[in-house]
Amino acid sequence: MDAIAYQSRHIPKGQVQLATTVIIVYDHLTTFDREIELIWAKKWSLAQIFFIINRYLGDAVYMYVKTIGTSPTIQNVTFIWACFQTWGLNIVLWSMQAIMQHRIASIYSNSRKVIYTMATVYFLEIITMSTILGKALSTVHVTDEVIPGLFTIKVAGFPPWYYTMWIPPIFMEATIFGFALYAGYTYSRDSLKLDLETASKSGRRSLTFILLRDSIFFPFIALLAYTLSVGGWKGFPNPGGQTTVSVAGVVACVLGPRLMLNLREAYYRPFTEEAQGQLSAGLEFNHDDTGVSGVSGLSGASAIEHNVNALEGDERKQLGGL
């Protein structure tokens, strides 16, 4: 009877964990071609390192949760695995926020005031979350036999104040969202109207529009998810709290990569399409009619490749390495 009661209580949590794992794996598979083209094939930057941490550590954590972490046959579970799950999700969250900060800094032309403000809130967040998590893990225990005859993994003993760990991310996301919202407000109606007209003709949004759109919308989604986590832990510590954390983790795993992929696709794709179109037409260029000034001896594919490489350099300067 105890086993039935336990399973009926925890089956919904397992279903949510399965759904979140499927979402993360599906998102990775459906964007992997863009990842190869826009991340792995480009010159490396700090933002790309955050991308790899965010995407692949997130995959590892959720695959662990649905394999080792929920296996009904595993025994002698070590405390290290519980630490991997909790610390892993935090690192995924911090890497996503690092990507977001790069985005905001690029919008404000790398303003020192903006960068210092975000960096201060960011490091305070990391210190606070690490302190709370460290103290919380000192009180939890991991068991593989939750009741006699039922083997599964259960992490229990989280202190009642554990929900406070999600308050610092709320402040961080609110800071990012505030900067993005102000930038969007200053993006004049005339500019927005012009962008919409251009999009209707070319079928493509401008780089500025995509930069602002994602920088406003994505932090807002993250802000809602972390607020939900606070409510989940406060009102339903276990298993409700762990369920909301799974949802918040998905947000961090998906939004970070999408931020970079969307912007890079908007930046690089027009030049790639133009280069492919020119090459397929068999056009030959020289110094006078291509506008490739200062590059002697280049024509056709070489001139186009030089332009793309130069633009990549400009992008790293303007967009903070994104």
Would you write up a description of this structure?
It is built from eleven helices and two strands; from the N terminus they run H-H-H-H-H-E-E-H-H-H-H-H-H. Strand 1 and strand 2 form a beta hairpin. It has helices spanning 2-30, 32-40, 46-66, 79-107, 112-137, 167-186, 189-202, 207-235, 240-280, 287-290, 301-318; strands at 141-147, 150-156. The longest helix has 41 residues, at 240-280. Mean pLDDT is 74; it is low at 1-8, 147-151 and 271-316. The chain is globular and about 55 Å long. The protein is mainly alpha-helical and 322 residues long. The protein has a single domain, classed as Rhopdopsin 7-helix transmembrane proteins. The protein has a two-stranded antiparallel sheet. It is 75% helix and 4% strand. The chain crosses the membrane at residues 44-65, 77-94, 114-133, 166-185, 206-228, 240-261. InterPro entries: DUF6533. Pfam families: DUF6533. Residues 16-58 form the DUF6533 domain. It comes from Collybia nuda.
Nutshell version of this structure?
This protein is mainly alpha-helical. It has helices at 2-30, 32-40, 46-66, 79-107, 112-137, 167-186, 189-202, 207-235, 240-280, 287-290, 301-318; strands at residues 141-147, 150-156.
